Amino acid sequence: MRIAALIGIILMSLPVLVVIVYGAPLLVRGVGLNGLAESIELTLVSSLLAAAMDAALLTPAAYFFSRHSASVADSIADLPASIPHPVIGIAIVLALSPTTPIGAALADLGFKVFDTFSGLSLALMAVSSPIYYRSARNFFESMPREQEEYAHTIGMDEVSTFIKVVLPQSIKGIASSVLVATSRAMSEFGSVAIVAYYVLTGPIRAMPASVMIYNSYSYSGVGAAVSESAALVLVGLAVELVSRLLGWGRRLWW
């Protein structure tokens, strides 16, 4: 059984190892660095923003459904992960285009989606939301409930208990879930290629990293894309490492 588990881990990590082994030396030699820093900065910042929006919108839902099971709600929460992500991009562009009432109202306010930082962040929020929801819900399910139960016995309602008792104990867990969602957002390509192939407005104007890698591969082959891939993998691993450290600290805290 141990050997089978080891083989499984090796197979799962093999693509990442191959990219790092072949791409990292090219990065050291400066291959593929043109525009790479801006591209990764754009991807990291927009992914963090998307995950933060996930947290703001979905943390109450994750807590509520960790205490009240609802299969329909779970199915809806999983929906963005179960459809092709280009469909999500098309849905965002269509729903928020000036031809729709919502899109027209947003356009009057100066909010644009196509090839903007806002549109990129919105697409990343949509695809990372199931990951955040599941991670946060699992965290809330694992929490000891003695203090919540005591709060209920002294007359606190569920909302007050969540705000005053649960949230102060959940900072590390929520931060860990945000970083997990960030890692997922950083890897997104399908919806991003439709909504924000190149970001023309916003604090960082560049091509998202996944699109840049695809472009390099399309025009110049694997050799040109592998160094950019390695850079994105290394940044993603750093985010994942911080998330794991928060998770370990969280368990020690309990």
Characterization of this structure:
- This protein is mainly α and 254 residues long.
- The protein contains twelve helices and no strands.
- The chain has helices at residues 2-28, 36-67, 71-82, 85-95, 101-108, 117-142, 146-153, 158-169, 171-186, 190-195, 209-220, 222-253.
- α4 (85-95) packs across α6.
- The protein starts with a helix and ends with a helix.
- The mean pLDDT is 88.
Short characterization:
The protein has twelve helices and no strands.
List the defining traits of the structure above.
single chain
Determine the N-to-C terminus distance: 31 Å
Q: What do the pLDDT scores average to?
A: 88
What is the percent of helical residues? over 70%
Sheet having the most strands? none
The residue ranges in which pLDDT falls below 50 over 5 or more consecutive positions are: none
Give the total of beta strands: 0
Helix/strand layout:
Elements: H1 2-28, H2 36-67, H3 71-82, H4 85-95, H5 101-108, H6 117-142, H7 146-153, H8 158-169, H9 171-186, H10 190-195, H11 209-220, H12 222-253
